[in-house]
């Protein structure tokens, strides 16, 4: 009997290991994380159709800047990272440019409060947002935020916390306690939400909120769509999950109550001084 039990145990362990490998593979495959997938840069037609007769009641102009990596890229063959990166030196110069121009730094939570008439925003407000929760947010971005005492928002993928390229949980906790950084959700697995089955969308959206709230002990009210991919179903799930706003990768600076769940953002790239300020102004004129 003892030999048979040992034999059965030896069979079970490889099976469990194989199942874990398969599950992990499909999670990463379905998440499309860090792959070159085209970003959604226009409002989907079904969303346009659903709001075409809705008259906006609230109108604000708040540039929301979109960042990914802020570091000195070591692997010059990593073309994806290089295309999404600016150096810490450039980021520092961008913050100085905005501060010198009179901009005040707010969060997406602040923007939602303004849309709900809970607060009045400064005349020149700007929001810094960082997608994915990369480790360089702690090592390179966070020190610059503290240097200038400015706010920012980082949208985190909970299932990637602790990976070599991403924030550790203790880093995220320290950042959240600083009072400078709002933590937002970015799905559990960086999933391309548009077109997914409803059950999967609910899991990715709802669990990302619950997981981050459990880790941090704070309410998570802001959401970012991976790849900017969303549709009416996704918007409905985000609303019902308890988020108060959501950001896309559609270019623009205007915020309406109508589009609080598909807010526009701008990629500043490496622009500083006049080039950066002109970019914000051109966005204003283009949308007016």
TrEMBL record:
Superkingdom of source: Bacteria
InterPro entries per the UniProt record, alphabetical: Glyco_hydro/deAcase_b/a-brl, NODB_dom, Polysacch_Deacetylase
PROSITE patterns: NODB
Cited SUPFAM superfamilies: Glycoside hydrolase/deacetylase (SSF88713)
Entry keyword Transmembrane helix: yes
GO biological process annotation, one example: carbohydrate metabolic process
Alphabetical list of PANTHER family matching this protein: POLY-BETA-1,6-N-ACETYL-D-GLUCOSAMINE N-DEACETYLASE (PTHR34216:SF3), PTHR34216
Full protein name: NodB homology domain-containing protein
Lineage: Bacteria, Candidatus Daviesiibacteriota
């Amino acid at each position: 009997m003892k030999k048979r039990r040992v034999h059965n145990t030896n069979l079970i362990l490889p099976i469990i290991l194989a199942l874990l490998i398969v599950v992990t593979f499909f999670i990463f495959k379905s998440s499309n994380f860090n792959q070159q997938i085209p970003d959604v840069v226009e409002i989907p037609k079904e969303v346009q159709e659903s709001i075409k007769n809705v008259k906006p009641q609230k109108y604000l102009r708040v540039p929301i800047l979109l960042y990914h990596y802020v570091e000195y890229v070591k692997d010059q063959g990593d073309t994806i990272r290089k295309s999404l990166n600016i150096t810490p030196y450039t980021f520092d110069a961008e913050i100085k440019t905005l501060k010198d121009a009179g901009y005040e730094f707010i969060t997406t939570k602040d923007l939602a409060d303004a849309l709900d008439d809970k607060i009045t925003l400064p005349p020149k407000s700007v929001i810094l947002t960082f997608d994915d929760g990369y480790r360089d947010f702690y090592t390179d971005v966070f020190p610059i935020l503290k240097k200038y005492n400015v706010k920012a928002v980082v949208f985190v993928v909970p299932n990637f916390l602790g990976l070599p390229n991403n924030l550790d949980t203790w880093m995220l906790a320290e950042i959240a306690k600083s009072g400078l950084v709002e933590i937002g959700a970015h799905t559990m697995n960086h999933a391309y939400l548009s077109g997914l089955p409803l059950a999967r969308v609910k899991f990715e959206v709802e669990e990302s909120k619950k997981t981050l709230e459990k880790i941090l002990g704070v309410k998570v009210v802001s959401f970012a769509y991976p790849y900017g991919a969303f549709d009416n179903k996704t918007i409905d799930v985000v609303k019902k999950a308890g988020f108060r706003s959501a950001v896309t990768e559609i270019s623009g600076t205007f915020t309406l109550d109508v589009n609080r769940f598909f807010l526009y953002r701008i990629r500043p790239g490496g622009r500083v001084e006049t080039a950066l300020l002109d970019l914000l102004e051109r966005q204003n004129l283009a949308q007016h």
